[in-house]
Design a protein that fits this description.
The protein is 80% helix and 0% strand. The protein has helices at residues 3-22, 27-36, 39-45, 47-50, 55-70. The protein has one domain (3-70). The longest helix is centred in the N-terminal third of the chain and has 20 residues, at 3-22.
Length: 71
């Protein structure tokens, strides 16, 4: 695994764990929700922008996407 793939995985983990903590759900439930609505793929696809931000921005990105997708 190269460094970019490692960083993408870190960003996904940060988003899943952060979202789970903020919304008082398990990380498994957060992962399932993000997988269902394509958030994990979107985080990985937007690596070039998101990796320049703090890991908290990955959580905000995930929250915004889920709000938009679940409306």
């Amino acid at each position: 695994m190269d460094q970019t793939e490692h960083d993408k995985n870190l960003m996904v983990v940060a988003a899943v764990e952060g979202y789970a903590g903020r919304h008082n759900i398990s990380t498994a439930d957060a992962f399932a929700l993000m997988s269902k609505y394509g958030v994990i793929d979107a985080i990985r696809e937007n690596y070039n922008v998101l990796h320049t931000q703090s890991l908290d921005e990955n959580i905000y990105f995930a929250e915004d996407m889920l709000k938009w997708k679940m409306e």
